[in-house]
Specification:
The protein is of the alpha/beta class and 223 residues long. It is 48% helix and 11% strand. It contains twelve helices and four strands, in the order H-E-H-E-H-H-H-H-H-H-H-E-H-E-H-H.
């Protein structure tokens, strides 16, 4: 599913687009369809959401696969800014009033490619058609403002860890070995989740589902 403010989901200009808002959107989806025995698989902020949703509605969740969960930010855009110097400069500038909106308006495929490259162990594995899709989405009405609102909610993603101890379903944490998160941050997340299993994918960055889909699929299907 495309999260609120992501992909081709409709954009509510009044939405907060922080972790609690997106968590409620996912829970609403599950409850609307009356789903039970759900296996949640999420990557990046989706990885953090898989964990907070599991803690919020444990009676509906069977298992969780949280891939590179984005739950460690200590500043605006912290994770993505770790990718490379270019990402640090551009993403950091987006928080500045006026300048941030101006820089966001200048984003194009070249800029987007350089930023996204920071999330790959091997940038050559970033598919050209995916870059085209991201660029098209970035030019939808209201999208760039929504993207800045997501980044502005950075504190909520770190606060999400407060919910992890409420998870009762089995959890597998999967990290790329060159993910943006640091080892101490991965160990901290694992320590908060009862009986969580942690797996590391070799030669894989933050966008594991694209860069290393085969190994990721094997882990999930093995259970």
């Amino acid at each position: 599913m495309d999260l609120p403010g992501h992909g081709r989901s409709p954009i509510d200009p009044n939405a907060r687009l922080d972790e609690p808002y997106m968590r409620e959107a996912v829970i609403g989806f599950i409850e609307l369809l009356n789903l039970t025995d759900v296996t949640l698989v999420g990557e990046s902020i989706g990885g953090a959401l898989a964990l907070t949703v599991a803690a919020s509605i444990p009676q509906r969740i069977k298992r969780v696969y949280s891939i590179n969960p984005y739950d460690y930010e200590t500043r605006y855009g912290d994770g993505i800014r770790r990718g490379n110097w270019f990402s640090n400069f551009i993403i950091g500038s987006l928080q500045i009033p006026v300048l941030g909106a101006f820089n966001a308006s200048l984003e194009n495929k070249v800029v987007l490619k350089k930023i996204m490259d920071g999330g790959y162990h091997d940038p050559k594995k970033f598919p050209a058609d995916l870059l085209v899709e991201f660029d098209q989405v970035a030019h939808l009405p209201g999208y760039k403002r929504a993207a800045r609102k997501v980044l502005a909610g950075w504190r909520s993603w770190s606060k999400a860890r407060d919910l992890y101890r409420g998870i009762s379903a089995p959890v597998t944490l999967i990290y790329g070995d060159t993910d943006w998160s640091h080892t101490v941050e991965r160990d901290r997340t694992r320590s908060l989740i009862p009986q969580a299993n942690l797996i590391t994918l070799k030669d894989t960055g933050h966008f594991s589902a694209v860069e290393n889909p085969g190994d990721l699929a094997r882990i999930i299907l093995a259970d």
